[in-house]
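Structure ticket #2291
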Amino acid sequence: MSRRCGALTKASTLCTRSIKSGQPRCFQHIKSVKPVCSETSCNNEVTIINTQCNDCSSNLQKLCGVETRRGNTCTNKPSNGNLTCSRHTIKVTEPFFDHKEDHCPLCGDLEEWKWASDFGFPNYMISSLGKVFNITTKKYLNGSVTDQDYIGFRLTKHDESHKNIRIHTLQGVVFFGLELLGKDDKVVITMDHIDSNKKEHNCTCCNLRPADRSLQAKNRNPFTPKGKTVLKISEDGETVIRYLTIISAAKDLEIDPRTLIKHCDEGTSIEEHTYRFETKDDYDDQTWKSTSELYPECQPPIEISDGGMFCRINKTPMMGSNIGRYLSISGITGRVHKIVWTVFNNRLVPDGYEISHLNSNGKDNRLVNLCLATHSENVKVTIDSGKHSKCIITRKHFHDGNYIDFISNAAAARSSDDTSESSVRRAAKGEIESAGMCKCGKKLTWEQIMILRSTVETNTEMRENQAKIKRKITNRSWTPVRQVFHDDTHKDYKSINEALRSNSKLSQSGISDVLRGKQKTSGMCKCGKRFKWIKLDRDGLPICVSD
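Resolution: structure written out below.
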């Protein structure tokens, strides 16, 4: 028996229409019903009938979900950020992996390994000497050098997200119990390299220690060259020598750097010569502008020159502090090249753009060397100059002795249709003999050129050589040739390709070898006699061809 609607009509009577299965009212009164959550204990309104509200669905996702012994699903809520409740928490033991024992190169202590699972990285083992082992792939990871000369890794967290982290920071979390902070968190205690060797000596036993900023500042060399230039002035007032740093001037005079700084400040002489720091007046050929408009937070304002230098009030002009491949200025967020471009263009860098160095020298911050570019354009400039990390000069050798140089394995692989980047890399390292084939059917060999001038001029010469060799190789296919039959009759073709189209059994390599004199004939007539080939000039006359 079908159910009746039962809704109150305008005539104050009950509707007697039948309703469909699963519907609370008939088609006319269904719109007057506000659907609620399908949970019996919840009366929240929903947009779709027989569905759960947001609160119930989110609570359902936060439940333990582990199957119990009776076959039911556990409805307890996880605690302390775990994925399961306290009753069903699985105790995982630290994994074991075979590895060779190693000792610290500084103090000789035995290497120690710890599992990083408690800190959000369950797939990795961390070494006290700065090594990282992937438990899943059973491989040691190769870190990369950051802009500030630290060793960094890209690791996968327990929630499948990725995180870029420096090895000394990860060691501080695993071995010293430091808190793993985010980008917006205030950093108070960090790891300090005692001997300032950031790349090779990441040793928790003797060279890494937790330190605040004041302790790290005391550990730095106070006389690290930062671009303070010293001038040696003669009695006539002429500049005799220009020292780029205080260290170089102190070594030449064989005195302590503190003593030299004192003489420069007081203007006293040393061995009949006076020494002073360079001033802004020594750079009359450069234009100077203040940072007060674009960087009002920097007080007092700093003056920037179009030559890539900066000068504080009554201070010496400087190039900036070394931050890896770039220079920076304390007190302003950003690198020197970014500040120089923005100040002289009177605008900030637009979103999606970067400041590129035309000569790929990150410390040459002259305004004429800077330009606005996208990330891909900036990377292309680095690749074209041969200074990109993946730019290993690869040479492609042909069987006739010619070769072409490419700026990377990827660029070399793109030049051949029948090979891949991995094959080119293996062939260049000598793991395999060849990779790919030439148009004439000969195998290609590869070589890595490790020493090559990484300049724009060198790369231009390399590209010109590539175009020249390509034209030479292409022109062989369009060389006029004469096909000579056994009865001394002949047929002329405008190119080798035209000869190939006339007979499918001919090969370009065979005709080319005949033209070079490596073989006498190539191809066979229907009567069983073989063809001879002669190279022709533009006028159709036979010419002598040498290798």
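Closing remark: Residues 222-226, 451-460, 469-477 have pLDDT under 50 and may be disordered.
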